[in-house]
Amino acid sequence: MSTRADAWPAGGMQPDWTLIVAPSTEDEAGRESPLASLDDGSLVDACLGGRIEAFDVIVERHQRAVYQLCFRFVRRHEDAADLTQEVFLRAYRGLRRFRGDAALGTWLHRIGVNVCLNHVSARRAPETALDDAPQIAAAGDDPASSLAKTEQGARVRAAVARLPRKQRATLILRIYQDLSHKEIASALGTTVGAVKANFFHALGNLKRLLAEEAVGKS
Fold it and tell me: Does 72 lie in the same domain as 54?
């Protein structure tokens, strides 16, 4: 999936990279690029200094995590791939705004969450078959553990899609992306206390939605 020339600001430089799922930091001769040994901050500096190919390494290094984040929101490969492309387009355009106060991966997560939330808010959540839904966690089970074990369940996916925006984003980042409360706060531009509250309410609402679905099916 190649970038489009008309997607870049007028007069801006378009990076020569193509978004793929499997990353590679080797050149055509199979040799590792010297840029691959740089940390994220140095890659940003190199890119801003005119070495546009440094952004190739940023994409290769982070595209899998960004794609997985997007897929957790939309559950379709095609949509997730398009959204991943959009995340990196926005990241490249706004690279000068990266201050290094958070890790580059966290900054990309922040962009990804905003892109995904805007996408899912602009369209109705797709209907999901519930026939192969997992069983609701038994009383006393740890909700987070139970959710992680049944993440492929259609019923859970449908319930997660019905959560309020911030609760859905917090739950996805905490359970599926395994980010800490501090990392989620940075990604969402909020406080650790708000993240903990949103996560608590998300789990409660998720259990309620699953229980209501079970009653409706009985």
Answer: yes
